[in-house]
Amino acid sequence: MAPEKPQHILLPVRVSTIVASFAIALLLNFLPWPNLALTPDFVALTLAFWCVHQPRLVGLGVGWTLGLLTDVGNGVLLGQHALAYSLLAFAALALSRRVLWFTLWGQALHVAALLLFAQGVAAVVRLAAGAELPGWNLVIGPLLGAALWPLASFVLLAPQRRPIDVDETRPI
């Protein structure tokens, strides 16, 4: 009754790992991309990841703070990303136990819905402030972010993985 594929037992996450991942995500969001609409929102992806995997450490306050930092760093309407990220964190926290039951690509479908929701909230705030209708290229960034979910899962869980030690004397 041995498992076909060895399972990894994850070590507890360090808060410094979470902080470093958010700092790198903020840096990636602040880079001058040629077409911003085609770029995934790295902060939203990282926030969704940590809300799903560590719901007791990352939540609404972290989402609000990251949103304000994103607004200030990008020089956009103050509060649009803060609202979008806090609602994203709420939705990810509500779905966190469900999402982990799926495979990585099933999780990516859930994350696509979460990222599209957050992008839609930010777009509604911009429209309420008088901006133009963004068009269909608004959905490309969240879908690319969802496609990056398996890679993000592998990279962000890497510090928690320990090598698989086969011990023939223990049943587990």
Overall geometry: elongated
User: Roughly what percent helix?
Assistant: 55-70%
Task: Specify the number of helices.
Answer: 7
Biggest beta-sheet profile = none
Total E-strand runs: 0
Round the mean pLDDT to the nearest integer and report it: 90
Strand content: under 5%
Order of helices and strands: HHHHHHH
Kindly provide the radius of gyration, computed on alpha-carbon positions and rounded to a whole number of angstroms: 18 Å
Which structural class should the secondary elements be placed in? mainly alpha
Low-pLDDT runs of 5+ residues are none
| End-to-end separation | 11 Å
Structural summary, described in words:
- The chain has 172 residues and is an all-alpha fold.
- 61% of the residues lie in helices and 0% in strands.
- It contains seven helices and no strands.
- The longest helix has 25 residues.
- The model has no long low-confidence stretch (mean pLDDT 90).
Summarize the structure.
By secondary structure, the protein is mainly α.
